[in-house]
Design goal:
Elements (H helix, E strand, L loop, with lengths): L1 E6 L6 H10 L6 E7 L5 H18 L4 E5 L2 H5 L4 E4 L5 H14 L10 H24 L4 E4 L4 H11 L3 E4 L3 H13 L6 E8 L2 E9 L2 E2 L1 H9 L16 H7 L8 H4 L1 H13 L4 H17 L18 H13 L4 E8 L12 E9 L2 E4 L7 H23 L2 H10 L8 H12 L7
Parallel strand pairs: 1-2, 1-4, 2-3, 4-5, 5-6
Antiparallel strand pairs: 7-8, 7-11, 8-9, 10-11, 11-12
This protein binds nicotinamide-adenine-dinucleotide, 6-O-phosphono-alpha-D-glucopyranose (G6P) and manganese (II) ion (MN) (2 copies).
Nicotinamide-adenine-dinucleotide (NAD) binds next to α4.
Length: 430
Amino acid sequence: GLKVATIGGGSSYTPEIIEGFIKRHDELPVKELYLVDIEEGKWKLDIVGNLAKRMVEEAGIDMEIHLTLDRREAIKDADFVTTQFRVGLLDARIRDEKIPLQYDCIGQETTGAGGMAKALRTIPVILDIAKDMEELAPDAWLINFTNPSGIITETVSKYTDINVLGLCNVPIVMEKMTAEILDADADKLRMDFVGLNHLVWGRAAYLNGENKISEVLDELATGNFKDVENVPDYEWGKEFLQSLGMLPCPYHRYYYLTDLMLQEEIEAAKNEGTRGEVVKGLEASLFELYKNEDLKEKPEELEERGGQYYSDAACDLISAIYNDKGTLHYVNVKNNGAVNCLPEDSVIERTSLIAKNGATPLNVDPLPPQVKGLLQVVNEYETLTIEAGVHGDYGAAVQALTIHPLVESSVVKDLLDDIIEKNINYLPQF
Ligand code: NAD
Ligand code: G6P
Ligand code: MN
Ligand code: MN
């Protein structure tokens, strides 16, 4: 049987991944699942871990759940390591959202200055995890969910020998939305996604071999279709969508509707609170539910979180590797020339062929200027952020924020110093 270690096991999302492994147990026989957390998260690990044990028992499958604070014990001889941890917990996320707002910049936990702060905190930890893997499970696959997922995956890919793929639920959410627009079955659709994590475009939507993307864009302009819970769903505008020629992802609203989004964030911060503050409340009520000994399945309330379907992405991907399936999945993977206007060693989010040896991103036809321009700038922001995160390179951090389209360049130094000061306990590299 397989051994899986999940780092950040105390996450309120854990029932999703448990359900994912239960549903696929016949084709993906996980025998040992280690849920790993840290002292601060132990109370969450205990509550959600006990729910996980009840779920497995109720399903009657042969899978042992171990709850531990010993990461090395969990990683030793694992076949797959999945990461879903949050360095600094929700309080750090709330700071990532609020600090940029003080400088009139978008305050979001993965996109813009907040995303860079989260990357700087997370890079030292992911490199430690990869080091443990190099020693204790050198052939294991690291399946990363920890945000900013593309940057974290690229860090591991550039600086370690570990096999790594990154994931996000956004492509699947976009695929489901496209299926709804076309009134089709999501299983029959194949999307051509290209871009970076939280900056991915749907370039084609194949239904029975026919590309329906322009129909999708026309229809999308007529109304609002639900995407992720955590991004306000302003409409794109018909002319905009038609001239773009691709399906934008929810996070593109920060780039394409910046001022609307900024005003919305400022209002929210004054009223119901930032998304991180709202999530604090959601999480508290989820853990109240999880404590109930009668609960033996994933509760529906979890759908109020933005990461829905992430476990389908993770478990399908793990199964495709384990079973050498040769199927298409949407993953964060080393570019290797698939997108010819980006460096070979950049990690891209792309429709990729998955088999035992990993992911092969499908080749991408040259991109139109409106997509290529933004893609290259944000990619180089990511390159600089990784250099800052790995080496504590302050100058790289200054330049990363300076070129980022969502950061006003004249505030960079003050904003960056503020970010470093408020996060210093999590920034050993600085
Ligand atoms: P959370 O705040 O519940 O954190 C999960 C757990 O991580 C907590 O129990 C915490 O104690 C633990 N943790 C913190 N530092 C740790 C460390 N050094 N080692 C081990 N565990 C540690 O967060 P969440 O809302 O469940 O999200 C977890 C992560 O997954 C975040 O980075 C989030 O951005 C990401 N996420 C990504 C996607 C995606 O689409 N890629 C979807 C959902 C969540
Ligand atoms: C999804 C993103 C995830 C993100 C999550 C936030 O849209 O793909 O990467 O972590 O939303 O959801 P939350 O409920 O924490 O705001
Ligand atoms: Mn995501
Ligand atoms: Mn890159």
